[in-house]
Amino acid sequence: MNLFSKNAKLKSLLDNLHSENEKQLISQVRSQFNGTDEEFQELLAKL
After folding, report:
1. Across 14-31, average pLDDT
2. Per the count of CB atoms within 10 A, which of 1, 21, 40, 44 is most buried?
3. What is the distance between the alpha carbons of residues 5 and 3, in angstroms, rounded to a whole number?
4. C-alpha 22: how far from its chain's center?
5. Distances from the Cα of 15 to the Cαs of 4, 10, 42, 43, 45, in angstroms?
6. Dist CA 15 CA 3 (whole Å)
7. Which 8-state DSSP code applies to residue 35?
């Protein structure tokens, strides 16, 4: 049993922080990407 299975609130908090960080990172990368939205989505799908 790990720490996350013992503490659902901690897991939820970390999941939310990870999700928000990922959204910010994608937004920053998109602002620097010169291709189309479709090309960007294709690039993300490869990750």
Report:
1. 96
2. 40
3. 6
4. 3
5. 11, 8, 25, 24, 21
6. 14
7. S
